[in-house]
Amino acid sequence: MRYRLFGRTGLRVSELLLGTMAFTDADQARRIIDTYADAGGNVLDTASAYGDGESLLGSVIDRRDRFVVATKYTLSRDAADPNGAGNHRKNLVHSLDRSLRRLRTDYIDIYWVHIWDRHTPVEETMRALDDAVRAGKVLYVGISDAPAWLVAHANTLAQWRGWTPFAGLQVPYNLLRRDVERELLPMAEAFGMSVAAWAPLAAGKLSGPGSTRVDPDSLTARDHAAAAAVRAVAGELGATPAQVALAWTRAKSRAVLPLVGVSRPEQLTENLGALGLDLPAEAVRRLDGAVDFEPGFPSDFIAECEPSSFVFGDMATTVDGR
User: What region holds the NADP-dependent oxidoreductase domain (predicted)?
Assistant: First the structure.
């Protein structure tokens, strides 16, 4: 296992992140975490809304200081309370204190905003997060499931006002769901953010035959095409489909850190095999072309204009980019 710096911070995080949403049994959770730690993994990701997930995780971590514990807030603590959800300061304070109790710790390594709240000014969220950092209850912050313009706005505010910026972005990313390549991934790269890619196996659709999470009757022609391409590359490289699907996300950007969720140690062991798999450029191109994807406006329009002398002059093609 190698390590990446988390965003523009000095925090070392393993190149494969472990999601704990599927944990339901303490003994099994311990075996999975032990397998992960033995391989060098150090990031355990949960959320306040994952049922008893925080409490279960808190009960099975033996060496708290050796792990980077990440959790999230935003989702409802009390469906009958209008202030029981959202990104405002009141929900942040109550959610954070509850997470600290559940996880049996006095600080959270990475605190994620779980989803954009349209009703809370981003200034309030960023200042409240910075206060939590200054109080020592949170070390680093990130945001999940939000538009690129909002994240860019939030980090620019943080830069101007001396607040703690988002160091990480958490988004769904896999061969079947490449939407983040339009705006979110370029934005994260420009801001130096780490990208935690959840659902990198597309909820089992790219894991290969026998995945217990997939109803075969629900698969579309597009799903079958992507899975077939993954299986073909896996066969050529002597790897499993899951390993190829994970390696593809890593090949697309150095900012990407696959976030895998498993319910058995054997699944994790297979996923860890992706870290030693370097996909040839030709294999990446084949996988890219297996299913339709268009960046859309403005990305594809700007790309078409770049070599144009009408747009950038006769010397446009003689300029080497960064």
Answer: 16-290
